[in-house]
């Protein structure tokens, strides 16, 4: 089965440099395709940049989004492939990796309720291209566009499966875009409301 890792950067060119130093080297020795796409400062959102990358790269099966400053730990792709095989190549699952935060041991978030806003799925969660399209691709939220995508996939019938031996290493700090939302309750409400209208 095909797994395509997509690293998308947008805004300042320094992010492209970071991708080449951090994210991309973590994938090159794993058996997966890798595509890096950079969008300029005029791009309206991270979601728009990622959608453009998918359009250009045109993966046909499984997609893994990887942020420029994060890494896939060794064995990530093989662990995901084993799980895909165990699940009989089911295209309606989301394969959520364990998440390693700085200074922490890897953990999965099986107790988080994606419907009510506690996202158990790191951005590196595998999603099949068919489900990516059915869920409406990324939207233009100012943050949490990954939760929005994966929540819509679940609303469309996807189920989350946790892959404990695939570890996504998040190297970002507390100053990141997703960690500095000024009114998180408002953004959560707006995303849920938009999903209700979309359905």
| Beta strand count | 7
* Tally of helical runs: 6
Q: How much beta, percentage-wise?
A: 15-25%
Q: Shape from CA axes?
A: globular
Q: What's the assembly state of these chains?
A: single chain
Q: SS-based structural class?
A: alpha/beta
Q: Average pLDDT across residues?
A: 93
Helix content: 25-40%
State the end-to-end distance.
31 Å
Written as H for each helix and E for each strand, in order along the chain, the element string is EHEHEEHEEHHEH
The largest sheet is: 4 strands, mixed
How many domain regions? 1
CATH architectural type: Alpha-Beta Complex
Can you tell me the residue ranges where pLDDT is under 50 for at least 5 consecutive residues? none
The CATH superfamily label reads Spore Coat Polysaccharide Biosynthesis Protein SpsA, Chain A
Task: Predict the CATH topology.
Answer: Spore Coat Polysaccharide Biosynthesis Protein SpsA, Chain A
Can you tag this structure with a few keywords?
single chain, 199 residues, alpha/beta, Spore Coat Polysaccharide Biosynthesis Protein SpsA, Chain A, four-stranded mixed sheet, 6 helices
Characterization of this structure:
- With 199 residues, the protein is α/β, with parallel strands linked by helices.
- It has 6 helices and 7 strands, in the order βαβαββαββααβα.
- It has a single domain, classed as Spore Coat Polysaccharide Biosynthesis Protein SpsA, Chain A (Alpha-Beta Complex).
- It is 33% helix and 22% strand.
- α1 links the parallel β1 and β2.
- The chain is globular, with a radius of gyration of 16 Å.
- 34% of the residues are buried.
């Amino acid at each position: 089965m095909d797994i395509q890792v997509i690293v998308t950067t947008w805004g300042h060119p320094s992010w492209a440099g970071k991708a080449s130093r951090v994210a991309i080297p973590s994938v090159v020795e794993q058996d997966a395709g890798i595509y890096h796409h950079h969008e300029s400062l005029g791009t309206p959102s991270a979601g728009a940049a990622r959608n453009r990358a998918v359009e250009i790269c045109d993966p046909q099966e499984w997609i893994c989004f990887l942020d420029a400053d994060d890494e896939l730990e060794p064995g990530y792709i093989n662990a995901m492939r084993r799980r895909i095989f165990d699940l009989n190549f089911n295209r309606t699952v989301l394969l959520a990796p364990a998440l390693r935060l700085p200074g922490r041991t890897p953990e999965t978030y099986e107790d988080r309720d994606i419907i009510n806003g506690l996202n158990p799925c790191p951005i590196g969660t595998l999603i099949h291209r068919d489900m990516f399209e059915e869920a409406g691709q990324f939207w233009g939220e100012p943050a949490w566009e990954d939760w929005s995508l994966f929540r819509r996939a679940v609303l469309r019938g996807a189920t989350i499966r946790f892959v404990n031996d695939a570890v996504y290493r998040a190297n970002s700090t507390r100053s990141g875009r997703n960690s500095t939302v000024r009114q998180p309750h408002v953004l959560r409400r707006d995303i849920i409301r938009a999903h209700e209208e979309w359905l």
